[in-house]
Amino acid sequence: MTRFRRTRVALFLAVRSLARGNASITLMSVAMLTAIFISVMFLPSLIAGATDGLNKQVVGTLTGDLSITPTTGSAIHDGTAYLAQIRGTAGVEAATGMRRVGNEVSHGAESVAVGVDAIEPVSYAAVFTTPQHLIEGAFLTPGDKDGIVLGIGVAGADQTRQRTYGSSLKTVHTGDKVDVTLAGGQSHTFVVRGVYQNNFPLSDQGAFITLDAADSLVSDTDISEQLRTTFDALDKLTATLRTASGTSASLATGAGGVASALDTLTSSASALASSASSVDAGADRLASSAAAVASSASSLAAAGQSLADGLQKTSTTLGKPAVAGATGSATAAATAAQDAAALVATCPPSTPAYCVTVGHHATLSKDAATSAAASAKATATLAGAVTKAAASAATLASGLAQLATATSSLSTAATSLAQGTSGVASGAAGLATATDEVRASAQKVASGADSLAAALAKGADVTGPTKADRDSTLAKLDALGTPPGKDSFTRIVVTAAPGADDAQVQTQLAALRSDVQLQSPAQLAAAIQDQLDTFELIDRIMRVMSLLVAAITVIIITYVDLANRRRQIGIERAIGIRSAAIVGSYVIKSIVTAAVGTVVGYLLFRFVLVPVVDQHPFQFPSGPVTLLIVPEVTRSNVVILIVVAAVAALIPAVRTVRMRILDAIWG
Amino acid sequence: MAHLSPAAQPVPAPEPGAAIRAEAVSKVYRLGAVEVPALFDVSLAVDPGEMVCIMGKSGSGKSTLLRQLGLIDLPTSGRIHLEGHEVTGLPESRRARLRLDRLGYVFQEYALIAALTAAENVYLPALMQGQRRSQCRARATELLAQVELADRMDHRPKELSGGEQQRVAIARALVNGPVIVFADEPTANLDSISGRAVMETLARLNRELGITVVFVSHDPDDRRWATRLVALRDGRLESDERVAP
Q: Which strands form B77-82's sheet, in the order they lie side by side?
């Protein structure tokens, strides 16, 4: 409560004093604090302006919003496709690729060590402001294979007042010819198309030719690129071997299928043998059926042979003859049965004995046809299995030798089967034997395929040098300065779309490719960090000094004011006004004065000084600099100045109220 | 005139007897290494309702005595009792509180705050006491009417004559309902007419409201307003007599 009373009286006295007190002192106080506020604001704004200018220069002429460089080697390969991906990324406004192709420009006796970059003029202009800062000539145009654009720091252009003139070519202008030493060591002559001046030493020390010109000067691929191609081929070979290994495994599975089909054939042959053993007299037509079976076996042999010759070509034909033979056998047997039946039908009612025999013969023939049909079906199954094996084997040439052996055995077996046609029983036995052999061969095929798959997998594992070996080799080549080849960039620079989230854009771009690194301007601005640190130090010193001046000024003003009011203060104390209220009134006055001073100072600074400097910028080595008001700095300056003013008023006020009342009034 | 309300601040209950009493009060000023005695063992008791005139030649110690009684200065020795309570050894904050709540003071000249109007000068102590602004202003209006300055309440001191300024000071001294009003040669810098008006005001307040007044004067004519005359000579009490005004 007491504190509220004191504050109320302090406020009462302060407001009345400000409103009706000595206007000249109040105005002087406001004017001083206005001047101090402006001085406190000036340097931070100048530094902010210089920093902003530097940042704009860095972004506009050096780094863009994002720079992409290779993590290994000196170039980003497959640049065109990558650039298209970048441009298609959300939040990217423009992107351009640059290739460092040279390291020296010379003219007559003068030479300048400078990085010569190959660019695509249209996309470069979309990212960088350099093309807008030509002081003579014109910028490069697409397809220009002889032109070069130089920075003022390289050309000199007779601008003797330039700080970099001494280290430039001094007298080079548009139309002059200069020699560029390329990264590979050879030299090439270009015609100067234009000279630019960014007013930023770091970017004024540059030279540009077109990518078209660069492409015409270097081989399709550089040594590094060739080596990378070799490494890539090795990678692909390894992948192929791994695939072949998988295919061999499939072949083994197919051979297993062949064996299984042969089992079925064996079963069919046994049935045939059983049928044949019961045929005796009417063996002619049965022989025909057996021949068909033999043909079927031959087809199987042929299929085995085809498998040996190259299963990839014979997978279809392997099955067809066998199936056709078996089917033919069945058809022939059926025909024989029909013929017999027809013969029986022609028999006279007396039914001679031969008719009885023929009728029996017809029944047997019908049974044979049934067996042959079963054989045909089994053969078709075999053909399917062989087809599967053939499809699996088709992808691997080296497995064919193993398969040839197997199919040779199959052929032999098939031949035996054919020879067995002289006698149905012996033929069937031969067929069984051949089938066993074929099965054994199929097993060999399967075993061989397994071995081959294992061998291929082993080969795939050991193919090519390790990644560390490759990187080491490529790094050594890069150290030798071999020029990047076509479709490669040493750097890609990206401009983010207005309002885009830079971090999000960076994340999306980082996901596109793993062999590059992305850097923001802040990360690239190390070159100007020393300047920024120096600015910061100067700012701190000047701010402390300005605040000291402010404090001393307020102390003096308050002290003078108090000296004139000492008697009044004595009287106020004599009538019971508390010292805290009196001190508070002076502190409040000082705070109000400081607040008004800062507001007036801000208005003058914002609407007078800043526009004037905008019209007439300061010329710094880094370029023209204007004042930039930083809201955070402004707020802190206002708060600090008001606090300083309050403390500065407190000191003489406390000192005065500590005087004896007698001394204050009558002293 | 309406009775002045008691001070808002709690103060010790008054004891019967003298409004203020000085016991063997001595004062020695120290000017560097030099000691200048101003009062020697002065004892004085002022009863409520008295109008005491402290007289004496220049340098006799009359203003010094007034400052000791008014708690503006500390005696070198002796005691001061206000309404029966010793206040000699109180810290400055307590004495300031007593000056605000229980005492009124009228200075010789230039005693008003230049940035405030007459009314604001009057109600400043009431504001300090914690009264509401409207209440303060009403009290100031009433008091300025008492000193016949109702039409000058919004005037600044520089717009008032010396006599008017002193009457504003009198109104200010009364705003918190003091026990005693001290006046240090209130007419010293005024012409005779203004001086007379000031003294008439003080006498009327004493007579009509019973306010205890202790004033210092070197003008023999001013003794006619007093009910008691105290004379000092060389820092010593020379005489103390009650008189009919």
A: B34-46, B20-31, B77-82, B85-86
Alpha helices of chain B — where are they, by DSSP H? Answer: 62-69, 92-102, 118-129, 133-146, 162-174, 192-209
Residue B236: which H helix or E strand, with range? strand B236-242
Phi, psi torsion values for A279, nearest 5 degrees:
-95, 125
How many angstroms separate the CA of residue B128 from the nearest CA in chain A? Answer: 6
Q: What is the pLDDT at residue A197?
A: 92
Burial A44-67 (b: 16+ CB within 10 A, else e): bbbbbbbbebbbebbbbbbbbbbb
Q: Give the 3-state DSSP-derived string for A572-598, with helices as H, strands as E and coil as C.
A: HHHCCCCHHHHHHHHHHHHHHHHHHHH
Residue A285 pLDDT greater than 90, yes or no: no
Whether residue B111 and residue A662 make contact (CB cut-off 8 A), yes or no, is no
- Angstrom CA distances, A207 to A65, A182, B34, stand at 21, 12, 89
pLDDT in tens, A137-149: 999 999 999 999 9
- Which residues in chain A touch residue B105, judged by CB atoms under 8 angstroms apart? 574-575
What's chain B's Rg over C-alpha atoms?
A: 17
Structure tokens at A345: 């039908």
Sign of CA dihedral A186, A187, A193, A195: positive
Residue A193, pLDDT above cutoff 80 = yes
CA distances from B32 to A140, A567, B35, B39, B60 (A): 90, 22, 8, 19, 22
Question: Do residues A493 and A68 make contact, with C-beta atoms less than 8 angstroms apart?
Answer: yes
Closest CA to A534 of A447, A440, A620: A620
Instruction: Confirm whether the ipTM is greater than 0.85.
Output: yes
- Kind of pairing, strands A92-107 and A110-119? antiparallel
Residue A138: predicted pLDDT = 94
d(CA A42, CA A627): 8
Q: How many inter-chain contacts (A to B, CB under 8 Å) are there?
A: 75
Contact A662 B72 (CB under 8 A): yes
Helix, strand or coil for residue B214? strand
Instruction: Answer whether B172 touches A (CB < 8 Å).
Output: yes
CB contact under 8 A, B114 and A568: yes
Q: Name residue, tokens 């330039």.
A: A162
C-alpha pair distances (Å), A589 with each of A26, A58, A585, A634: 9, 47, 6, 22
Residues 131-160 of B with CB under 8 A from A: 156
Helix (H, G, I), strand (E, B) or coil at B181: strand
Looking at beta carbons, which residues of chain B come within 8 Å of A665?
107
CA A628, A632, A633, A637 torsion: positive or negative? Answer: positive
Residue B130 and residue A5: Cβ atoms within 8 Å?
yes
A573 in contact with B, Cβ within 8 Å: yes
CB contact A499 to B (< 8 Å): no
Q: Kindly report, residue by residue over A420-471, the tens digit of the pLDDT.
A: 445 555 655 666 676 677 667 667 766 766 776 676 666 556 555 667 776 7
- Average pLDDT over all residues of chain B: 87
CA A642, A645, A649, A652 torsion-angle sign? positive
Q: Other C-beta atoms within 10 Å of B149: how many?
A: 23
The answer for residues whose C-beta is within 8 angstroms of residue A216's C-beta and 6 or more apart is A145
Cβ atoms of A519 and A66 closer than 8 Å: yes
Chain A environment of B104 (Cβ under 8 Å): 575
Reported as a single tens digit per residue, the pLDDT across A63-105 is 888 899 988 777 888 888 999 999 999 999 999 999 988 889 9
Q: Is B97 on the interface with A (CB under 8 A)?
A: yes
With an 8 Å Cβ cutoff, are B97 and A660 in contact?
Answer: no
The answer to whether A574 contacts chain B (CB < 8 Å) is yes
DSSP labels, A388-457: HHHHHHTT-GGGHHHHHHHHHHHHHHHHHHHHGGGSHHHHHHHHHHHHHHHHHHHHHHHHHHHHHHHHHH
